Amino acid sequence: MTDGRTRRRDDTKQRLYDAAMELIAEHGFSSTTVDDIAVAAGVAKGTVYYNFPSKNALFEALLRHGVGLLTTDFRAAVAGAGTPPEQAVALIRAELAYIQRHRSFAQLLLSEMWRTNREWHQTLHLLRDEAVGVIAEVLERGVAEGHFDADLDVRMASAALFGVCLVVAVDWLVFEPDRSLESVQDSLIAVIRARVGI
Amino acid sequence: MTDGRTRRRDDTKQRLYDAAMELIAEHGFSSTTVDDIAVAAGVAKGTVYYNFPSKNALFEALLRHGVGLLTTDFRAAVAGAGTPPEQAVALIRAELAYIQRHRSFAQLLLSEMWRTNREWHQTLHLLRDEAVGVIAEVLERGVAEGHFDADLDVRMASAALFGVCLVVAVDWLVFEPDRSLESVQDSLIAVIRARVGI
Amino acid sequence: MTDGRTRRRDDTKQRLYDAAMELIAEHGFSSTTVDDIAVAAGVAKGTVYYNFPSKNALFEALLRHGVGLLTTDFRAAVAGAGTPPEQAVALIRAELAYIQRHRSFAQLLLSEMWRTNREWHQTLHLLRDEAVGVIAEVLERGVAEGHFDADLDVRMASAALFGVCLVVAVDWLVFEPDRSLESVQDSLIAVIRARVGI
Amino acid sequence: MTDGRTRRRDDTKQRLYDAAMELIAEHGFSSTTVDDIAVAAGVAKGTVYYNFPSKNALFEALLRHGVGLLTTDFRAAVAGAGTPPEQAVALIRAELAYIQRHRSFAQLLLSEMWRTNREWHQTLHLLRDEAVGVIAEVLERGVAEGHFDADLDVRMASAALFGVCLVVAVDWLVFEPDRSLESVQDSLIAVIRARVGI
DNA sequence: CATGAATGAGCATTCATTCAT
DNA sequence: CATGAATGAATGCTCATTCAT
């Protein structure tokens, strides 16, 4: 039955996604072999190529998948909070939580986001704009409504906010994995709020 | 003459460093071949193996070299400024300037810094502590002297500061390469200073 | 209905023949994939294996089919002409016409006819004898009836005649495809007739 | 020493040529693996790729090599004979002799010469013109000097002569390998000369 | 009758490493 | 001190074949 076949195929694709995500995040794209992915997904190597035209294509699909989830989380965070400052806090929490759940993907972004001349660079660029764009919207609204400094460089601020969460979260998961999400979130917000006075 | 030979050898090593840095930063470690490095350095492939025991060893030496330079710049920045807040600003400037000069190395750090299970992970970890440690010292002194909030999470703050500079700088060089160092620095400091009010 | 099903099955087989002939002739046996054949025939890959036990078997059937048609044409040409010399001309015309209609098959023969150690070599050998045999018969009769030189090496002459038509026809179709069949036929007969005087 | 290294490399290349020629002629291009070639040449697989950029490139070099030799033989045959008819006979003998020595190459030509859409088609086309061109020159001179029919289609005649030798020679080597070159040559010339009377 | 997802052996190609010169 | 020819294990990808539906 079509239904059965389709379900079977979707299963396979999902298992390949999961396996590839884990492996590529841990070892990087080039060091992850298609063989590894197949073994981890519990299928034959040919099955990878039956479901994706190439290793690159699988990776691109992966990026799309991962950033899509993140953007969805971002949108939900914004929708669930009231004022821009509250939304910003919600975004930070959402990003940290996402990274906690998909640590591997965060390492992937860190590795690939600013690397040019890769086949999937274009794809990643667009996806990034999608995700960071949600942050930028909030900051813009915050500026418009007088919550944030009027001359805030929104582009840089959103990139910086996105990036600092990324870096802090990954650092946390690598070096202090036992610390709780709440603790990290509180510290990070404190750091951002801190009148560092510089 | 020994002197001449040594100098010649150092030359070769330096050229290999430069070539490898450029290539690995641009394409990643796995995607850079020893052949590429040899060609870019203008030597035969065997020469790479005459000067370094392996590709991994070359890369470790590279990391040591690069982080060493950064740490030196950090120390100079601290020495050239008075109070901790001034030192912090000097550190930001130093990091941005370093990345501008060695953009490739920054991308390298971003890719490798938080990736475990690589042969050189240990090395990189130690080096990172060396560099980030300089930032931490300044923040600690700032807290001790009452410049910064007393309950500042210094560990996280220094990691965050290091990371945010890294991310902002790379983002700058990739997406707005024509912007000046000063402009970026000013914006970044403004963003950090901003009573974001969250 | 049995009739309907049979016809449908024959349709599928014919479409597979046509598709395979075209593709194998153009790209060779090894470079033609079963996938290509299925797509070109507009059926699923499994259908190829439902109708033929293997790719090799499909190819053998193809050879049988193609040479069978050629032999039939040869027989018709002989039957439609009077004396051996006239029959020889008719054979030349038949071969050229056949190749014009099935150019792909001619290229196939050229590639495979003299290649030993292929699974289907035996098959092809027998088929060849069938077709070239018709030419040989005509030449033999021509010798017996005094039309041709008494000491003609009939075996070689028939092979040579068969081959020269093959080569000339393929050359024509590849390099001067706009030339007419008649023109080629006339030139070829003139060349054969020519007292080259060597 | 450069000399030693160079000689060693040339040796390797020659051995690869020989091995590849034999194998590709016998089994065809697609069915011959680089592994086979390496084993037959007595080197490691990587060595093939150290000496040629790809399997295709090796094959193109092979074609150049083989047709080059044939053309040289053709030129020598023409130079060693007096009148165009004598030169034509010498060419036939040269072609038969060449094919006897390089039977594999002849099968190769038969398979590839009229196959379009292959990467090396262009190369082969040019090479063919070079070799067949020598025959055409002789025929042209023969016509000009009144040895051959004035309205001879030289283009076709040279292609036909080249092709008929090819076909006859291969047929000979496959089906009557014990027959002598002289015998075949005599029969072939007799066939060509025969007032077939068609 | 026909389908198409899945398989795994096989292939062209790459590349870190060795070593004779 | 430097070279570059040679190596062979590893890798991305192909494709004939199988089989559950």
Automatic annotation (TrEMBL), chains A, B, C, D:
Domain of life: Bacteria
PROSITE patterns named in the record: HTH_TETR_2
Pfam families tied to this protein: TetR_C_24, TetR_N
UniProt keyword terms in alphabetical order: DNA-binding, Transcription, Transcription regulation
Spans traversing the lipid bilayer: none
Domain HTH tetR-type, chain residue ranges per copy: 10-70
The keyword Cell membrane appears for this protein: no
Annotated region of DNA binding: 33-52
PANTHER family assigned: HTH-TYPE TRANSCRIPTIONAL REGULATOR RUTR, MYCOFACTOCIN BIOSYNTHESIS TRANSCRIPTIONAL REGULATOR MFTR-RELATED
Protein name, UniProt field: TetR/AcrR family transcriptional regulator
Natural source organism: Dactylosporangium salmoneum
